[in-house]
Amino acid sequence: MPSSHDWINKPLGVVEAMFGKKTNAVPSLNDVPLHYLKPNSLVKFRCLVQDMFDPEFYMGVYETVDPSTKANVLRCGKYKDVTECGVDLNSRNTVTAERQTFYCVPIPGESPWAKEISFLSAARVVPSTSYVPSRQKRSYEEDDDMDTQPQKQREPHTEPHGNGDSKRQETEAPSSQTTAPSDCSSHLDLNFPLPGERGPACLVKVYEGLDSFKLNDTLEIYGILSVNPVLTVIVYPYRDPSLLLLNPTESMETPEEQRAHDPPASLVPRLHMLYARPLQHNNPLLPSAPTEDQSAFVSSFLVEMASVRAELLAYLTHVLLGDGLAAEYLLLHLISNVYTRRDVLPLGKFTLNLSGCPLNSYTERLYQIVQQLVPCSYRLSMSLHTMNSMRLVPKKDYVANRLVSGALQLARNTSLFLDETQLEQGQLDSSGVRNITALGNLISWQKVDYDFSYHQMEFPCNINVLVTSEGRSLLPSDCQVPLQPQVTPPNMEEYLTTIHMAQFTSQINKFRVYLSLARTLDYSISDEVTKAVEDDFVDMRKDDPQSVTAEDLHRMLVVARLLSLSLGQTTLSRDGWMRAKHIDMLRRSRTEQQKSLNGNEP
């Protein structure tokens, strides 16, 4: 137990030690319904930074006047949205500070199994006996039709001291109840990147280390929860006329901006950040923090890597209808990762095009199996209607002063499943062409150009893209593998379901850990092996210079890297290089054979 001396002399050390030991005891906004959490309590939130609002002023230090004794009391305004009643506006001790607000959403496309395991491992939280919610709230998963009617009662003796607009302050809260107009009951757009997503969104107030955060970061945030009803009454959607403003520019805020920046606290709670941990992955089965426990876990699992790989390869072979070569490439794709960038070239990406896929429901079931293996994924059905109507690229809304999300605003290492078998004949309109272009840029350069109307802003990403198609994909890829089924099940749905159900949960969990762990391993090539690879490349080009290009060498080096990591090996061996050459030769032979059968393919 830290002493008062520790708190005075090394408070940061005390806090960090507490986080290191007690993080599992902190309730999570992802897992616990909001009405179970007491206001002003410590909570955590696993999220993606979807938008970053302008900085705002707040009263960092202020004085209140006791109405009975008339004594002045100095108070701290940090980690609060509202102040105590009786603020002395003329005090010389008032200190104005600055903070920034991030709009954060749950990690897009988080798999149901990852949510379930996180929920089961989370602290069990029961309603506080000292806290009675002002109205009954539904859990996030049950709240399909969210009611945005704000609470009509507010807690007494509170005053707002922060703001949602750039450089403004609010001071006195209204003394009477305020009723929002009836149009407030319309559905609130929580701005989730993917359709059908549920869960909380949060306005996160950030006080320190602003330069260490970027748009689209995935974080686990620890902070003070604020759901005070006064926030709903005052800031959404109209201000009470009795509210005194220190900065008249606040009145310049549009109603659209108010709705975007100051949504009801009952639906979009405020979270005052104390600490944030960047997430390298969101697999709850794998330790995420670099600790001794993680090192021990990794070391023990590395011993099993080869055997788990063999079991996973056998499983994927059955899923891909007996095609062992396609299963090998799918496994390598699932552990691929952009590990660095050289100028504009992302190194490590490995977009796979599985062509020759059966029609009907096969690709949908294949995605469901992939979804069961990775912690984050999304299937984009590339029908003509979807490509012409769906917003893939985020766009800046200057009226509401917010970034409107798009389906390509995804967390790092998300598996994006592009189902091109759904693309029928027809005409792509201008929106569809832009979407196809955006997908091509994502695949080739691992970047998305966000639309800021007058210009585009480039945001790098790290997304695993798997394209399934009937023929060769119209999108670029790093590797095409024509599927060659060895079995033809009479009932595809029943066949794939039987294969999946035959796997024990413990075995599937091993596959999940394996795929996430292989992606995090370091990798290097010794000078000796580098020289051997260069000599081998020269020999391959001697007989037929056109047979092997620099692009082919790059692809084989990527395959060799992934093969090594898939076996838990962090360096490339001569055997690993020869294995990479062999499976690439098999793949190229199959591709050439497919081209000869389908002479119209490029």
Spell out the key features of this protein.
five-stranded mixed beta barrel, five-stranded parallel β-sheet, single chain, 602 residues, alpha/beta, 16 helices
> How far apart lie the N and C ends?
69 Å
Mean pLDDT: 84
Kindly report the spatial arrangement of strands forming the biggest sheet: 1-5-7-9-8
The biggest sheet, with number of strands, parallel, antiparallel or mixed sense and barrel status, is: 5 strands, mixed, barrel
Helical residues, percent:
25-40%
| Category by helix and strand content | alpha/beta
Would you write up a description of this structure?
It is found in: Nucleus. Residues 152-171 have a biased composition (Basic and acidic residues). It holds the Pfam family MCM_bind. GO terms for molecular function: chromatin binding. InterPro entries: MCM_complex-bd (IPR019140). The longest helix has 24 residues, at 574-597. Helix 7 (305-319) crosses helix 8 (324-334) and helix 9 (362-371) runs parallel beside helix 12 (492-501). This protein has helices spanning 4-9, 11-22, 112-121, 229-235, 255-261, 292-302, 305-319, 324-334, 362-371, 384-389, 430-445, 492-501, 505-520, 527-543, 550-566, 574-597, and strands spanning 42-52, 56-65, 72-76, 82-84, 95-106, 158-160, 202-206, 218-226, 270-278, 340-342, 345-347, 352-355, 377-381, 395-397, 402-404, 415-419, 447-451, 456-460, 464-468, 479-482. It has 602 residues and is of the alpha/beta class. It is built from 16 helices and 20 strands. The strands form 6 sheets. Strands 1-5-7-9-8 form a 5-stranded mixed β-barrel. The chain has a 5-stranded parallel β-sheet with strand order 13-16-19-12-20.
